[in-house]
Target: Zinc finger DksA/TraR C4-type domain-containing protein
Amino acid sequence: MTDAAARLEDERRRLLASITSRDADVAGIVAAREGSNVDDEHDPEGATIAFERSQADHAADSARRRLAAVESALRRVEDGTYGVCEVCGRPIGEGRLEALPATARCVRCAARGDR
Ligand SMILES: [Zn+2]
Model:
């Protein structure tokens, strides 16, 4: 399982870096907006800034969700339950773990959707 832990750590570092840069994007967009003193409702540029900001916010949210999944997988590595399906308790296939290292469900339970 050390390979899995190393992959998860890599993924965690990558996500943290992308969250940091996305936060910087959002901060930059907000600063641009404050500096330009535009009216969102009536200024076409204001609408663009609002749109860019919502795109950046959305990307940061999805990176944070993935980070949460990776961190919970790392906790499972520590407590020895990594690679075991959280729903049925059977081992998760090696190929699936390679493709989706942070997954907590076997392919069958994942296909069945949410609990
Ligand atoms: Zn399962």
